[in-house]
């Protein structure tokens, strides 16, 4: 499982990168708006924190030609090399842009995915990651986990190199269930990443070990 942080909250990101084995960061226009930063500042600051980690930047153009121009501009402007991923919505112009960009060697993440077919078409268009939105599906009385499971199954059955990047989580249980249903990766808010590793029994056990070990560890280090 590849863990990524779905945020542009710099202090939360710094705290997480200190100990959590994260491999990248995803952003979208809403995340950017919440951060209070413009794109250039946000990406530069995030890059400082994640080092060699992936940075997935969502495009805002609406035609394929503009998307291609936008992605190429960001790639050279931010100078992130292979760590830069152009995040492209799965609309008709987006699929067209994915194919063109893949031919130039650009890394592509297909986003705003709500069906198995959208993911399969994006994979066939060359996307490196496909991002189905779990909570947004659950919230319209659909089944986010089932969509993730079907997409993961397709990627394996058709021997596609595309990875499922499950996204849009509101609970730790959703993350547990995408992990158990074949998702290769997940992008998660800082709050949920912290909750993922919490268990009251861990805290109780550690407290007990510390108490029991008092005065017994006589090898200095
Ligand atoms: C990730 O790529 C998506 O932009 C994000 O996970 C959407 O999450 P939300 O439904 O919580 O906004």
TrEMBL record:
- Coiled coil ranges (UniProt) are none
Instruction: Give compartment(s).
Output: Cytoplasm
Enzyme class, top EC level, equals transferase
A biological process (GO) of this protein is: ketone catabolic process
Q: Which InterPro entries match?
A: Aldolase_TIM, TAL/FSA, Transaldolase_AS, TSA/FSA_arc/bac
Q: Give the matching PROSITE patterns.
A: TRANSALDOLASE_1
Keywords, A to Z?
Answer: Cytoplasm, Schiff base, Transferase
Domain of life, per lineage:
Bacteria
A Pfam family annotated for this chain is TAL_FSA
Q: Which GO terms describe its molecular function?
A: aldehyde-lyase activity; transaldolase activity
Give the EC number(s) under which this enzyme is classified: 2.2.1.2
GO annotation, cellular component aspect: cytoplasm
Keyword Nucleus belongs to the record: no
The record ties this protein, via SUPFAM superfamilies, to:
Aldolase
Record PANTHER family:
TRANSALDOLASE
State the protein's name.
Transaldolase
**Organism of origin:** Sunxiuqinia dokdonensis
